[in-house]
Amino acid sequence: MHTPLFRIRLLSFFVVVFAFVLIAKLYHVQIVNGSEYSDRADRQYIKPNQVLFDRGSIFFETKDGTTIGAATVKEGFTLVMHPKQLADAEAAYATLSTIVPLSKEEFMEKAKKVDDPYEELLRKVDRKVGIQIGELGIPGIRVYKENWRYYPGNKMASHTVGLVGYKGDELGGRYGLERYYEDILGRSSGGLYVNFFAEVFSNIKNTLFNGRELEGDIVTTIEPSVQNYLETTLENIHNDWSPDEIGGIIIDPRTGEIYAMAALPDFNANNLKEEKDPRVFSNPLVENVYEMGSIIKPLTMAAALDTGVVTAASTYKDDGFLVLNNRRISNYDGKARGVVKMQEILSQSLNTGVAYLVTKIGKEQFADYMRSFGIGELTGIDQPNEQAGITENLRSSRDIELATAAYGQGIAMSPIATVRALSTIANGGMLITPHLVKRIDYKVGVSKTIEPDPGTRVLKKETADEVTRMLVEVVDTALKRGEVKMEDYSVAAKTGTAQIADNVNGGYLDDQYLHSFFGYFPSYNPQFLVFLYQVKPKGADYASETLTYPFIDIAKFLINYYEVAPDR
Predict the structure, then answer these.
(1) Distance between CA atoms of 161 and 71, rounded to whole angstroms?
(2) What stretches in the chain show pLDDT beneath 50?
(3) CA 234/CA 57 separation, integer angstroms
(4) What are phi and psi for residue 270, nearest 5 degrees?
């Protein structure tokens, strides 16, 4: 016989289970599928056999943890005419034209098609307006429920977020995060009446046995205020120097989280009809590769210090040029400096200096170091169509190819690969994985936080700290002759000016350059690394002229916005 205590425990167990099921059901109805169930109120606007578009959302997240929609589903209506049922075309037009913009000529032409049962008048009608029209009950005029993909920020982070479009008859993510996370953002055609438990276990079955991700929303690492500031800065640079392309990335070099990522020209995914060239939808920060120039020199210096072939106190004799394999390479101004210390290789951006370092390191070991920085590899960023760099020069047996690679010519890499490589200096020697998503909120009510990859050590911490010290010296004394030095903050930075390859005649163009700039701060425990580049700017030869002040402006904004404590 069961004791009273046993009965009480058994009853309590069933009460707890029932309460759990009830709470789960309410959560599912009100939170998970709240928007779906609200559609029942609009069931008079649903066409027979209609499947409404649905898709998971993409969010930005502010510094205080507030999520802001980057890609959502917007609800509205399609305005339709049934010509055979239209009692008075003139009166119908007169009424509708006071509510929505319609061409009278087109309206009347469609009204004449009495044998056509269905003529669309207007798509993507606002929900409130659509309900207003529906309630008028105009004979022959109907509104039908319609959902579509909507990007609240319009052009904000357009290359990163991507877009939804058709490929054949299939609608899905085509670029950016929309494509990369299609398995999570895409929705199977379920409907409103799927049983709660059936849906949960169906999701689990798809995940365990069909290799599919659970459906959900994604929360990005993009901080909207930082993204907006970067985009505004790029627009200002573009207005000043009219480059063919321009872009920038702001990343936490310790974790790989990307605060902002932007390029021009960009696009508005809410109005794709404006775009004539589909290439604008691709993300050049991930899919294009460039010869980056002198911002690669700190990596060469790091390799030399790490191997011990030089120290920061070492010197070399700079003659202003070198002849290797019957080819001459020279400093940007062709001038000799005489006997100088290693610091001057970075402070004065000496091509002959890094070429000298390669001879000390040895060609094979130098190439191994450059590859260890991820040059020539995919970074693993969560964006589609990432391109690996061009690194044939690192496999060459000729001195000239390795020497030019030492100052960023003859090898090409994507902006994101460049940022990853330079982060190894900023973060103390670790090769990290850049990423754009910090959390996935699954439809079944659970979340998964994306933990940063701790990375692989490629430099001694002492080496990275020494190169950082040298780059701080560049900012404090050499960059703009020290006028951009911050008294309360240490900033490490380097400019780059690269010749652009002549793809028609071979060699390099004489008067067209790529300008690049990278810097990080506070230097010895940096929260931010900022990278900027522009292709073929007009009216200036050197990156120090075009990108120094935009970088400093971004640095000051980030320091103030995140209330970064002074470090000196």
Answers:
(1) 8
(2) 29, 190-202, 207-209
(3) 27
(4) -80, -10
